[in-house]
Amino acid sequence: MPAARTSVLLLGGRSGVGKSTVAAAVHDLLVARDVPHAWVEGDALDLAHPAPWEHGVAEANLADVWRRYRALGYRRLVYTNTVSVLQADVLAAAVGDRPHVTSVLLTGSDATARERLGRREHGASYDAHVARSDAAAVRLGERAGTGVHRVATDGRTPQDVAAEVVALAGW
Predict the structure, then answer these.
(1) 33-56 pLDDT per residue, tens
(2) What pTM does this model have?
(3) How far apart are CA 56 and CA 46, in angstroms?
(4) In the chain, what are the domain boundaries?
(5) CB of 73 closer than 8 Å to CB of 35
């Protein structure tokens, strides 16, 4: 693999929009095309209680993880996290080497998000996730800049969405 700079595909969006499902489909598509890449679930980089967000744990862990992938020759990173598209600069700095960043905000209706969340959350957990999802949808819609691609997931297969976001990344 050439010593080119890193290319990062950021997948953000409200809970229930399909970030992880689309990332899995992106992974499958790239594997089928034999395109080397790594996929990192941002939520797993600082999953603790109490949440250590203010300490930059996720970014520090991403830097460590990506350094290892980069040493092995990887140059493409798929990164999922609800607010990743709002943190593109911070995440790019964690990756290093002035990466090319493609930010994609996955969008979906309230009904779609609720239906998908209902598959994995129940009772009070469902209610809390819906409330956070609704708030995130508003925040992301208002704050994601014009350089962020918006890709709808309603009524589409993960494979269809994956093909679109891979094309946006130029991979």
Answers:
(1) 999 999 999 999 999 999 888 899
(2) 0.95
(3) 9
(4) 7-169
(5) no
